[in-house]
Specification:
The protein is of the alpha+beta class. The chain has helices at 28-41, 60-68, 84-98, 103-118, 123-141, 145-157, 160-167, 173-181, 194-209, 212-228, and strands spanning 6-10, 49-52, 55-58, 73-78. Strands 1-4-2-3 form a four-stranded mixed sheet, with helices on both faces. A hairpin with a 2-residue loop joins strand 2 (49-52) and strand 3.
């Protein structure tokens, strides 16, 4: 298989759309640095924008910076994918290989992957999609299957407050998982124990009628009676 060819294309001809457009929100600091670099040196052809069917799959920040820097064309690579799901997995792997994804970004990626995997499947298969795809999703995100399962609990049952704490970096995935599971765990109920109540009642009566020496003698007598019966 030949390597994809890098070609120059007008910035106006490139489209941005879901599920790729907002997969990784553009960071203002990174965008500002890119704009400055492109204004001074142009677009680095060593890092072309990846497109599929004229839609940007990887390189949204670079495209935004190129437009802001006044560039009319940008280097692109046209790739072929079997499906939108495959293109999405490629976009995630590309970002993962360039940097460490935050816990919240992992959650966002998982939600989009799970949603895409459900599309087009009969309702009878939806309940098994997650189990079958856990290893694939874990490999795509570069995390363990346990992490994928915890992220899914956070996605399905985590409150807005928990997800916001994860986004801000206040919670780790483990902490967000525990907070999401807390309302779902059964609460232990202390059932009344009639025998315990009777014992406490008798003990209260004994303390009211006997001193310490007498109580000790009573205990010895009870032990002797239990030993002989």
């Amino acid at each position: 298989m030949t390597e994809p060819i890098i070609m120059e294309m007008p910035v106006w001809s490139l489209k941005t759309a879901e599920p790729f457009k907002n997969l990784f929100p553009i960071q203002d600091r990174v965008l500002s640095e890119m704009i400055g670099g492109m204004t001074a040196n142009g677009f680095d052809a060593g890092h072309p924008i990846v497109i599929w069917k004229m839609t940007v799959v990887d390189g949204h920040t670079r495209l935004r910076a190129a437009i802001a820097a006044g560039l009319e064309t940008v280097p692109v690579i046209c790739r072929r994918f079997k499906s939108e799901e495959d293109a999405l997995e490629y976009a995630i792997r590309s970002q993962r290989n360039r940097r460490n994804l935050t816990d919240y970004e992992l959650l966002q990626c998982l939600e989009k992957l799970d949603w895409r995997k459900k599309l087009g499947r009969p309702s009878s298969e939806c309940c098994t999609v997650r189990g079958k795809s856990a290893e694939i999703v874990a490999d795509t995100l570069g995390v363990s299957r346990t992490t994928v399962e915890r992220l899914r609990v956070i996605s399905d049952h985590g409150s807005d407050e928990v997800k916001e704490a994860l986004r801000q970096g206040k919670y780790s995935i483990s902490r967000a998982y525990e907070e999401s599971m807390r309302p779902r765990r059964p609460v232990e109920k202390n059932e009344p124990d009639p025998d315990a109540e009777a014992v406490h009642s008798v003990m209260a009566e004994i303390h009211a009628r006997m001193n310490t020496v007498q109580i000790r003698k009573l205990v010895k007598a009870l032990q002797l009676e239990l030993a002989t019966n």
